[in-house]
Queue: 3 jobs
Job 1
Amino acid sequence: MSKTTPATAALTKAGIAFELFPYDYDPTAARVGLQAAQALGKSPEQVFKTLMAEVDGKPVCVVVPSDCEVSMKKLAATFGGKSANMMKPADAERLTGFKVGGISPFGQRKAVPIAIDETATLFDQVLINGGQRGLLVGLSPDDAARVTSAKLADLTS
């Protein structure tokens, strides 16, 4: 497994300190984020999943705890929209340059607005996908928000 991905390269270029957390990715897991947390012995609230969605037809990236579901109503409101829905996996892969299960908010092919659930600030370090299946990066939530110009908001139902 390569430890250099577009996500880790973007973090390095931005001067962001991060720690690598490789794990055995299970493509058959019902919930990949929860499987990652379990494989690493981390709390599911500290391991964040990256999802691609659309608000009023425009792409956005949303980062939430692996044990939570995104509230489409809250997501739309965060970006000043009326409605939100999940992006089709093929569209998410084409837009981001990452495979589903390895989508990261860092180093995406095309920059889109990003929102991170505000519970990230409860931790000194959060784990977020590092740009490939089986690799998370650990970094401070402040750095994650700063490097992505993300909005911090209540995003879960």
Job 2
Amino acid sequence: MAANATIRIQQADFDVGHEIAALTKGRIDIGAVVSFSGICRGSENGEPIAALTLEHYPDMAEAEIKRHADEAISRWPLSGLTVIHRVGRIVPGENIVLVLAASAHRQAAFEAAEFLMDYLKANAPFWKREESTAGTSWIEAHDHDDAAAARWTKS
């Protein structure tokens, strides 16, 4: 069975277990599912965070995530992918992002999930605004995120 990708950008929370069950239902070709779930922290560098607000360009974000999901499917022998990214106001303890990569074997699933998360963290068209006791501020990109994404560039 060919791999397919489910991509959703939504305000509503998601249930990781439900998403894994949906990805694997009726599939006997899947031997591994690797999941990454990003959760809003309650502090950054010792400073309390009240919430994150994520914004995006809807059509652009979906298209870019799909393009990278298609690349993952072409690079690794995957059985399926799920990428869910939340937008809107997210408070500490709530889910932000979920990447599920399914394959017959674990190595492909691990690598594909890591590839997608590195892309999402460094290059996906989302903008984060942090609320703290000091006020609100936009979160800048980090060099280490760019370096992690760059290692997947084909030479």
Job 3
Amino acid sequence: MFTGIIQAIGQVQTLEPRGGDVRLTLSTGKLPLAGLVLGDSVAVNGVCLTAVNLAGGHFAADVSRETLSLTTLGALRPGSRVNLEKALTLATPLGGHLVSGHVDGVGEILERHQDARSWRFRVQAPAGLARYIAQKGSICVDGTSLTVNAVDGAAFELNIVPHTLVETTIGDYQPGTRVNLEVDLIARYLERLILGERAAEPASKGITAAFLAEHGFGR
């Protein structure tokens, strides 16, 4: 588990193809490596990876074909900047929100503009994630815990303060940038709880407009 509070910006050093997947080696910048051992988890742009090698300000992790195809990690190149966070402990302040490091989908930056000292970003999420994104709710974008300012269909808006802009890769975002999205854990589990016994049925028989109306969720 993670908090979504980015601890450092790392940089991709190498991407080594290995039998159809990739071993990723990154420099860790100012990430505190004290206490990090082989097998520990590190979130890289919001993706939970396992450290398989540690050496002098670098770590390596194997990235599966599944992860390469369902996240933006497959588009990384040597020199790419990435957000880094070590897994939380029971002594870690929960400054953001609970983040699993399991990406739900890839979104796209639609626009950015300055608003006083902050920057506002509009992000397009996959249609299937729209029901989990709520105004003033939490969302994780490339591993960063953020508050949703507004929602319009499957698009949502973010207000990024100067500190976050500098301490994460969000300052690099331009229209067209693809980003990893993880929705709030509570929203995902709430959907399953609402399904009740229907949770064991095929997905095609899950939550529908008719199901919500039947259970009193209609307007």
